[in-house]
Amino acid sequence: MLTFYYAPGTCALASHLALEFSGAPYEAKRLDFKQQQQRTPEYLKINPKGRVPALVTERGVLTETPALLQYIAQAFPQAALAPIDDPFLLAKANEFNSYLCSTVHVNHAHKGRGYRWVDPDDGAALDAMKKKVPQTMAESFTLIEEQMFKGPWVLGEKFGTSDMYLYTLSRWLEGDGVDVQRFPRVADHMRRMEAMPQVQKIVALHQA
Amino acid sequence: MLTFYYAPGTCALASHLALEFSGAPYEAKRLDFKQQQQRTPEYLKINPKGRVPALVTERGVLTETPALLQYIAQAFPQAALAPIDDPFLLAKANEFNSYLCSTVHVNHAHKGRGYRWVDPDDGAALDAMKKKVPQTMAESFTLIEEQMFKGPWVLGEKFGTSDMYLYTLSRWLEGDGVDVQRFPRVADHMRRMEAMPQVQKIVALHQA
After folding, report:
1. How far apart are CA B193 and CA B187, in angstroms?
2. Does one domain contain both B69 and B92?
3. pLDDT digit string (tens) for B159-180?
4. Same structural domain for residues A103 and A76?
5. What does the CA dihedral B49, B52, B58, B60 come to, rounded to 10 degrees?
6. Which residues in B lie closer than 8 A to residue A88 (C-beta atoms)?
7. Chain B residues bordering chain A (beta-carbon distance below 8 Å)
């Protein structure tokens, strides 16, 4: 049995969706970030980074969204969540997922977690970071819309983990001051994702 | 034949090392960032992100370090650069590589590329970011030293792409105001990397 740790509003939604679509048996445990449950000694033994997602397997704990997404796809191949038998196409999936992780998520984090990179008491610097988030998020989604998104799914004909990850970060646009309707293909992708019962089920858990 | 685009001082060193250790035939092309060669229309056709590394293969272009590292390991399996036959161990490699990409590299980038996340004319905000880099880099390398690094290599007994990536980012510590000697296992890892002729050859190219 896999145990999956998540918190609402975080990128853990992507891996949670992958688990749900994989058909694997898993237990999902919710952490309350407002109560700092990700900082308890008990959780820090699971993930010393004090972050989500974390996936406890029989062989140990896995963290970092791109690693989890590929692991879930490889461990449950019957669900066909990534092109695991083709190194080039798998690299295209990882290229996309890595861009979301290291550029798009990082852009977004400058709104609410700027204290990671400046003195938390430096209000002017925190404000300067927040101010640019609509621009950096719009630039990233322009690149996704115009260059990276193949259609009808992220990587082309086959639905998979990159779709779950893109959907997770697309949900952040509104709060980041960017109208998703500026990106018609991404907006259409969001609608198709939200029509799926698996997505509705997991999103409801993250919103409850 | 693979064509690899890199620039000195960048994270492209990690993928360059992986290519060298893979035994694959490849041609390396150097871009001069001071002359903005990553922004030419010609290069933007290869990588619309205007960044390195980029690897041109017969089937298309690949970018993003974690994606390239796994691709090179999978495409040239005889070099045994990653645990590609074990989804859990491969996920541990990707977990490590993703942490370097999305957290450690991002910490470092706040020294010289803070303009990505604030108005480039906001000198006070840029200075605020620079000031914290020694702290964030030291925190990341403390986690690597104490929790993530298994020894003798990053993932344990087997040398591979995670070692090349760690070495690449370890080289940034001095310029980021952090003494690598604070992290004895990382410092020893650097010494062992630098004793390898393949590393000496590629580092010389990046320094020339």
Report:
1. 10
2. no
3. 999 999 999 999 999 999 999 9
4. no
5. -20
6. 57, 59-60, 62, 71, 75
7. 48-49, 57, 59-60, 62-68, 70-71, 74-75, 87-88, 90-92, 94-95, 98-99, 101-102, 105-107, 110, 116-119, 122, 124-125, 128-129, 131-132, 136, 143, 147
